[in-house]
Design a protein that fits this description.
The complex is a heterotrimer of chains A (about 100), B (about 500) and C (about 625).
Chain A (H helix, E strand, L loop, with lengths): L8 H21 L3 H26 L2 H31 L14
Helix pairs in contact in A: 1-2, 2-3
Chain B lengths: L1 H7 L12 H19 L7 H27 L2 E3 L4 E3 L1 H28 L5 H18 L3 H19 L6 H32 L4 H10 L5 H21 L8 H8 L2 H26 L4 H23 L5 H25 L10 H26 L8 H4 L2 H4 L1 H15 L5 H15 L3 H26 L17 H19 L2 H6 L2
Antiparallel strand pairs in B: 1-2
Helix pairs in contact in B: 2-3, 2-5, 3-4, 3-5, 4-5, 4-11, 4-14, 4-20, 5-6, 5-11, 6-7, 6-11, 7-9, 7-10, 8-11, 9-11, 10-11, 10-13, 11-13, 11-14, 12-13, 12-19, 13-14, 13-18, 13-19, 14-17, 14-18, 14-20, 17-19, 17-20, 18-19, 18-20
Chain C lengths: L6 H48 L8 E11 L2 E9 L1 H24 L6 H20 L3 H19 L6 H32 L4 H7 L5 H18 L8 H4 L5 H10 L4 H8 L1 H6 L3 H22 L4 H21 L3 H28 L17 H15 L5 H16 L1 H26 L5 H7 L8 H4 L9 H16 L13 H10 L8 H28 L6 H56 L4 H25 L1
Antiparallel strand pairs in C: 1-2
Classes of the chains: A mainly alpha (about 100), B mainly alpha (about 500), C mainly alpha (about 625).
């Protein structure tokens, strides 16, 4: 007999933490600016998952509606970020974040 | 049928539109500027800047009227408990408006000198100011997050807006990546606080923790982790050590007027938000976060002043100086955390607010001088660029000297009054160690300001100095510097009224 | 008249502002005359205030003039206010009096300097700051002046920044002074915390009700501040380096006025010092005595005419702290005043010599100048007799008062004081002989040195040492007169002749002694004469020997004479002290500056410019914060 484990909100919270951690690690190890954006988006969406899980656990609509705000913010961030990246890549094609370290000390 | 319609009516929150007028003015101004400027040929010289100054001033005037209303009717929450209309919020709104006016005065000639035209930067100032005020008056963590993002997104673009300078774009990208990174932490913190208290509303969070002093273990862990991540997000925004790494690079790379705006408005909004979150939302956890704030404050004080010593670029020096100012402000926050139960009427809050206002004016004037000295290309901001300023432009050098002395906290300037306030509050709540450290760091930091003064007044001219482009101080820049120096000295001599006014 | 006390600092401030605006237009020498007139005007006002105070009874000699309320503190205020009382007006009298003489002198000394008016700009700003310091009715106003004099001193030391060492010396002064400032700030905060006010009258009034620990803390922190400003061990070492500045600056700031600010501060808060636990004054007395002896030892081995005077100043300041630590505040002030007379005189005399010698400062290249510079020589000799403690010159009386107080405190302190007096007489005699007597060694000096074309040489042209112009000589004569009669301020014969003590009594109290004064005075005279005789024997009779062929060898001969006199070990000891001075203590101060620099350099490497490293720093900090909140606060 296969034991069927019923997923609880805690599972989703752990999954969200895992996704968030993946996003953090991605920011720390990847060099392509576009991938960095994706990692930051992953972090934001991981938090969204948390919001939904908490809302579900507490039977509160607030957490779910928050998600929409976060999505809008994330979309705006992408627009701005892509704008900056495109401007930079036009000047320096194939630039990685490691190349962009003129300002230091 | 009529009954059915009535039952279907949506009951949104009651909105006190009048209380939102500063925000509406800023938003309206931004929209008008964006649309009208897009449809009309380039406006005459100074018109964009003067329009922005007018909008900022109008918002400030409305804030004063609201201030008066609070005097009569007391503080209250707006838009379904999402925002506060209270004195600290309005105070920061006024501070932000001053920041906008100063930045606009700096920008006009800068843009024409650098060959960048168009009203975009001004639109971004106005939008960022809107976000800053929302952030500073938020009574809900999600509103706070939205305000922070409105402010930050505008700042990222502003930092990268000098398309001819690689430095500017690099700084924009760095700011964007790190800002997004840290605001994700902030958002996660909000989620965890929501998960443990069941709300994102600061008032509800506060009452939940107050009414349930003994939480079960998992909720307590969630809440503590949430507090930690909220502190990360806010400490990043105020550029506290060890979350400060972005600020020297971004300050150096961003166009100088933007740096002024960033240092003043960004800091004011973030500190106001920090006070609200820690004192209005989470006083229950004061015993837990106070040591963390203490540590961050000490690191920031010492780090800011020590690291400034080896810098040679004035914008970078001022970035570290701004970090050390954040340290002083954190001294005030730490003092307030000692009696966090009093919300925003805790000892220390009014000194922090006072400091923010004073610093906004101070930093506006200081960067105004740097804008002028930066010369075409905005590149001559290292110490050598200031060499001989005492000879070629004595009035400008004198103004800068006053502003630098004020930043160092010399008596008879506004900077002294501000520093005296926060350190005095730290002493008042018996937080002696941090007061002593703050004084030591003032001693170290003095060196940084002195170096700039020496460069202006004493350093010998070198070959090629005369071949440099002359420093020009156009009218609006002159106005900004004069206002800033005048305010700095006026508050230095007569700080009385302002200290009494501070909420 | 008392209400115009604000004019005293206001006049130099006005001078500063006018020169700031019109300095270049006024030029050389009008800017100098203008600046001098401002300080002299402030001297006249001070005299008016002084006579007004004098006409009142002792209890009424305390007047606070509030300009405006400044920093509000709850219900109380810190005001921008001036306090006219016997102590502050005494200070003002000699600050403005000697200040205007030195301003006058500087007109001659700085003549021909390309930045003539800027020099007077700083001098007037300095006078303003010093008067704020002295007249402030609360610690904050004093602190404002305190910072101001420090900054001016810094700028004036670096005035001839073409010289590399001048810039370094300015930096060193800055670092050590900041340590002192920190002490002052701490004292201020302790006083504010304990008393709730920064007014001297409130602090001193509440002294009796303070706990011993608090009073001790305030006193000792203030003493750290005083050590920095008044160049006491271990913070003294900026003062000898400060001699890089123009000589009028050395005379005004680094001998007569600014360096006495620490002594003034200790006298000002003397009620606190009296309440503090007994080890606090003892520490002050020991530091003072140690500094006095140490600096006198170093002075013996110096060859630079100004360095000798600089170490001598440190040593004399040590005397003043010895007096403060012994509870004899009047004696400290008395010595401060007489010292201001004769040390300003000696510095100005040295300046006159340097001016006449075309900026030569090495005493080994001087000699026999008394014939060429008769007035300078005569006045310098009066200064020498005053500092050496020969009666009836001024220094004798004040030094005697201090030695008496030290004797009452502890006989060891008295012995240290006596040895210092002996050394003082010795090195000053050595200096007088080397400069004004003996062989003329300056011809060769010019062949080697004058060609280097030091500042202002071209303005003079001739290579012969010459007497200085009248604006330089007049102050010398006036100060010489004061150095002769200055002792009359406080003659120890009977109570009514102790005028200074009576005058200052309402502020600093009175120091009573039961010790017989005459034997002590005789011992002091004897010691002074022995010192003079010793130096005379070594340096003067050395000269009677056949003239040595090479001047340089002759100069080194003096050094040999020192070692012959002191014996091998004695010589080594002096060298050792001088070495320690140059390496260890210097190193410590430079070291702390270097430490900050080094640390900053290391931290700087963290700022790599790579955004991923920054993110990693944030990530690591997040982990630390989470550990604190979740693990330490939550689980444990």
């Amino acid at each position: 007999m296969i034991a069927v484990a019923h997923p609880t909100t805690t599972w989703y919270l752990l999954l969200s933490a895992l996704l968030f951690a993946i996003g953090v690690v991605g920011v720390l190890v990847r060099r392509n600016p576009l991938v960095l954006f994706m990692c930051i988006e992953l972090m934001l969406n991981a938090v969204n998952l948390s919001f939904v899980a908490f809302a579900k656990r507490m039977g509160d609509i607030g957490g779910e509606s928050t998600v929409f705000f976060v999505m809008v913010v994330a979309a705006a961030e992408v627009v701005v970020g892509l704008g900056i990246v495109v401007a930079i890549l036009r000047r320096k094609p194939n630039a990685t974040t490691d190349d962009l370290s003129e300002l230091k000390g | 049928m009529g009954a059915l319609l009535a039952a279907d009516t949506l009951h949104g929150p009651k909105v006190d539109w009048f209380a939102l007028t500063p925000l509406i003015i800023l938003l309206g101004g931004a929209m008008v500027l964006l649309l009208v400027a897009a449809l009309t040929p380039a406006w005459p010289k100074r018109a964009y800047a003067l329009f922005t100054v007018a909008v900022g001033s109008a918002a400030a005037v409305m804030s004063f009227i609201l201030w008066d209303r609070i005097n009569h009717q007391g503080a209250k929450t707006l838009v379904g408990d999402a925002m506060w209309l209270d004195k600290p919020g309005v105070w920061i709104a006024i501070t932000v408006c001053i920041g906008v006016v100063m930045a606009a005065l700096l920008t006009d000639d800068y843009l024409r000198r650098e060959g960048i035209d168009g009203p975009e930067l001004y639109v971004l100032y106005l939008l960022a100011a809107l976000g800053a005020i929302v952030m500073a008056s938020a009574n809900d963590l999600i509103v706070l997050f939205l305000g922070l993002e409105i402010l930050s997104l505008a700042l990222y673009v502003m930092a990268a807006s000098h398309r001819k300078r690689a430095d500017s774009q690099e700084s924009g990208l760095k700011y964007f990546i790190l800002g997004g990174f840290s605001s994700a932490f902030l958002l996660y913190g909000i989620a965890l606080i929501y998960g443990s208290s069941g709300s994102t509303n600061l008032g509800k969070i506060e009452s939940y923790f107050r009414l349930n002093p003994i939480l079960d273990h998992s909720k307590e862990t969630l809440a503590l982790a949430g507090v930690a991540l909220l502190i990360v997000g806010l400490a990043f925004k105020v550029a506290a050590v060890p979350f400060h790494f972005w600020s020297p690079d971004v300050y150096e790379g961003a166009p100088t007027p933007v740096t002024a705006f960033m240092a003043s408005v960004g800091k004011a909004a973030a500190f106001a938000a920090m006070l609200r979150v820690l004192l209005q939302g989470l006083p229950h956890w004061a015993q837990d976060y106070r040591p963390a704030i203490w540590t961050i404050a000490v690191l920031t004080l010492v780090g800011g002043s020590v690291m400034a010593v080896v810098q040679t670029n004035v914008k970078r020096m001022l970035a570290f100086s701004s970090i050390s100012h954040a340290g002083y402000l954190l001294v005030g926050v730490e003092a307030a955390a000692h009696n966090a139960g009093n919300g925003l009427s805790s000892t220390g809050v009014s000194s922090v607010l006072m400091y923010l206002l004073v610093y906004t004016v101070l930093v506006g004037g200081t960067f105004a001088v740097v804008t002028a000295v930066g010369r075409t290309g905005d590149g001559a901001t290292d110490l050598a660029g200031f060499r001989g300023l005492g000879r070629s432009k004595p009035a400008l050098a004198l103004g800068m000297t006053v502003l630098l002395l004020a930043q160092a906290g010399v008596p008879l300037t506004s900077g002294f009054v501000a520093k005296f306030g926060v350190i005095g509050d730290a002493v008042r709540v018996h937080s002696y160690a941090i007061a002593i450290i703050a004084m030591v760091s003032a001693v170290i930091a003095a060196f940084l300001y002195l170096r700039i003064m020496i460069s202006m007044w004493i350093a010998e001219p070198e070959a090629g100095d005369d071949a440099r482009e002359a420093v020009r101080v156009p009218a609006l820049l002159c106005v900004a510097i004069t206002l800033s120096v005048g305010f700095t000295l006026a508050i230095g001599f007569f700080p009385d009224w302002l200290i009494h006014a501070a909420p | 008249m008392l209400d115009v006390v604000w004019l005293i600092p206001a006049l130099p401030l006005a001078g500063f502002l006018c020169i700031l605006l019109f300095g270049r237009k006024l030029g050389d020498p009008k800017a100098g005359y203008f600046a001098t007139a401002m300080v002299a005007g402030s001297f006249v006002v001070t005299l008016g205030v002084f006579f007004d105070l004098l006409s009142k009874t002792a209890e009424e000699r305390h007047h606070v003039k509030t300009l405006f309320q400044w920093v509000p503190l709850g219900s109380a205020h810190i005001d921008l206010a001036f306090l006219a009382d016997p102590l502050s007006i005494t200070m003002c009298l000699f600050v403005t009096g000697i200040g205007s003489l030195i301003h006058l002198y500087a007109i001659g000394y700085m003549h021909g300097d390309p930045r003539f008016s800027k020099f007077f700009l700083y001098l007037n700003l300095f006078a303003f700051s010093m008067l704020m310091l002295v007249l402030g009715s609360n610690m904050l106003v004093t602190f404002l002046g305190w910072e101001g004099v420090g900054t001016c001193s810094y700028f004036l030391i670096s005035f001839w920044h073409e010289k590399d060492s001048a810039a370094t010396a300015g930096k060193k002064a800055f670092v050590t002074n900041r340590v002192g400032d920190w002490g002052f700030m701490m004292a201020m905060f302790f006083a504010f915390w304990a008393v709730g006010s920064l007014d001297y009258s409130a602090i001193n009034g509440a002294a009796a009700s303070l706990s011993v620990t608090t009073a001790t803390a305030i006193a000792l922190f203030a003493f750290i501040g005083a050590c920095g400003k008044s160049a006491q061990l271990p913070l003294y070492l900026w003062l000898p380096d400060a001699m890089e500045g123009p000589t009028p600056v050395s005379a005004l700031i680094h001998a007569a006025t600014m360096v006495t600010a620490g002594v003034y501060l200790m006298c000002r808060i003397s009620p606190i010092l009296n309440v503090a636990s007994s080890y606090a004054p003892t520490i002050i007395a020991i530091v003072g005595a140690a500094t006095a002896l140490y600096a006198a030892c170093v002075a013996v081995a110096q060859n630079d005419i100004k360095k000798v005077l600089a170490y001598s100043t440190v040593s004399q300041l040590g005397y003043m702290f010895l007096a403060v630590g012994s509870g004899a505040y009047t004696a400290a002030i008395f010595h401060m005043v007489t010292h201001a007379f004769f040390k300003a005189l000696l510095f100005l005399g040295a300046g006159s010599v340097i001016h006449g010698m075309h900026h030569e400062q090495d005493m080994r290249r001087m000699g026999a100048l008394r014939k060429l510079m008769p007035i300078t020589a005569a006045t310098f000799i009066i200064g020498w007799l005053a500092i050496a403690g020969v009666p009836p010159f001024a220094g004798f009386w004040s030094k005697d008062d201090i030695l008496l107080a030290a004797y009452d405190k502890n006989i060891v302190l008295w012995v240290v004081g006596l040895v210092t007096a002996l050394l003082t007489a010795f090195y000053m005699t050595r200096q007088v002989i080397m400069v004004f007597y003996g062989e003329a060694r300056w011809h060769d000096a010019h062949e080697e040195h004058g060609a280097a074309g030091d500042l202002g040489v071209s303005a003079h042209g001739d290579l012969e040492p010459h007497e200085s112009p009248w604006m330089m000589v007049t102050p010398l004569v006036v100060l010489a007169g004061l150095s002769i009669v200055g002792g009359g301020l406080n003659l120890p014969f009977k109570e009514s002749t102790e005028r200074l003590a009576l005058w200052l009594e309402p502020v600093v109290g009175v120091h009573t002694s039961t010790t017989a004064k005459l034997p002590l005075a005789l011992v002091a005279i004897a010691v002074g004469l022995v010192g003079i005789a010793g130096a005379y024997a070594v340096y003067y009779f050395k000269k009677v020997k056949p003239v040595e062929p090479k001047i340089l060898a002759d100069a080194w001969g003096y050094d040999r004479a020192v070692s012959a006199f002191m014996g091998g070990p004695g010589r080594k000891a002096f060298d050792g002290v001088a070495w320690a001075d140059a390496h260890l203590i210097d190193g410590a101060v430079n070291g702390s500056g270097e430490l900050v620099r080094g640390a900053a350099g290391q931290v700087r490497k963290l700022q790599t410019g790579n955004v991923r490293n920054y993110a990693a720093a944030i990530g690591a900090s997040v982990v630390l914060l989470l550990v604190w909140f979740v693990v330490i606060r939550g689980l444990l």
